[in-house]
Amino acid sequence: MWRKALLNMVIVVFVLATANAHDLFLKLDSYFLAPNAKATVRLMNGTFETSEGVVSRERLSDVSIRGANTQVSSVEAVSWRNEESTALMDIQTGGAGTYLVGVSTRPREIDLKAAEFNDYLEHDGLPDTLEQRRKRNELNKDVRERYSKHVRAVFQVGNTLSEDYQKPLGYPVEIIPQQNPYALSVGQSLTVLCTLEGRPLPNQFVIAGWEALPGKTQSMNTRTDANGLAIIKLRGAGKWYVKLIHMTPLSDPKLNYESKWATLTFEVRDLSQRGGRRVLRLRTK
Q1: Are the CB atoms for 79 and 62 separated by under 8 Å?
Q2: pLDDT bracket for residue 272 (50, 70, 90)
């Protein structure tokens, strides 16, 4: 009996973990790279710490890289390989500057049981949709959802700051930094612009977090203002993410919701523990 109970408990934990493992992030081993060097970008399909499965190239509608004299706008132009449950992009940096890499996926559809859907609304940052289901007495209603994911990472090459980090990529939803993350340090704030189809997204629930130590992530949440802007206090050094999910109810009899996911990743260094401030130069046009 105890073995059966233990097995059932393990299954429940696994199901909940799987239900919560929805996010997509672009993650580098280090976001500080040398000019004219090779680097690897990991497509984390699951959580910020663990990828639960490889994203196939057929699912990708766009891969973009911007920075210095580098410009890529093609899935085929990037070298891909798989490492267990993670898809990897091998890229080559050019001259010094602040680089942007983005990936956009094609829409897919999924059937979810009511409890599973409610759990993901609660834990993945969709309190408004969950409250809407409560008010409509739909918490016991199974759903079919169309979803797509649109992610970006900003990394620093060499010691020259540039403005490529703030370029829109034309994705359905985007999180765009309004300051260069590599001009900021711990204790300062980063403002991000959240957009839907290129327009500011007001009152959007946003989650931010950072990996202070490998495998240990702290998080916080906020909302955008009327202009689609959210302020993120950089509370600690480490690899950071900002994420949002915009979900819309649909009247289609075969489809209940459409969600569009966005993430942004970058890294913050604690300069006070490195014996002084890095010398970064702002590139002028």
Answers
A1: no
A2: low
pLDDT reading at 96 higher than 80: yes
- Of 127, 268, 60, nearest to 278 by C-alpha is 268
Which amino acid is located at 50 in the chain?
T
CA dihedral for 59, 62, 65, 71, sign (positive or negative): positive
Tell me which DSSP letter residue 227 carries.
Answer: T
Q: What angle do CA 231, 232, 234 make, to 5 degrees?
A: 145
| Residue with tokens 């950072």, as numbered in its chain | 210
Q: Look up the pTM and report it.
A: 0.87
Give every CB contact of residue 244 below 8 A, 6+ residues apart in sequence.
125, 173, 175, 194, 201, 204, 205, 206, 207, 261, 262
Q: Are strands 143-157 and 32-33 parallel, antiparallel or unpaired?
A: parallel
Predicted confidence at residue 79, as pLDDT, reads 87
| Chain segment 148-188, per-residue pLDDT in tens | 999 999 999 999 999 999 999 999 999 999 999 999 999 99
> Hey, what are 114's tokens?
């009511």
What residue segments make up the domains of the chain, in order of their start? 2-282
Distance between CA atoms of 272 and 274, rounded to whole angstroms? 6
Sorted by sequence, the CB contacts under 8 Å of residue 179 that are 6+ apart come out as 190, 191
Structure tokens at 118: 């409610």
Is the pLDDT score of 278 beyond 90? no
pLDDT in tens, 215-247: 788 999 999 999 999 999 999 999 999 999 999
- Residue 193 CA to its chain's centroid (Å): 14
Backbone angles phi, psi at 186, to 5 degrees: -55, 135
Looking up tokens 């997509």, which residue turns up? 24
Report how far apart the first and last C-alpha atoms of the chain are (Å, whole number). 72
Q: Give whole-number Cα distances, 212 to 25, 233, 239, in Å.
A: 17, 14, 7
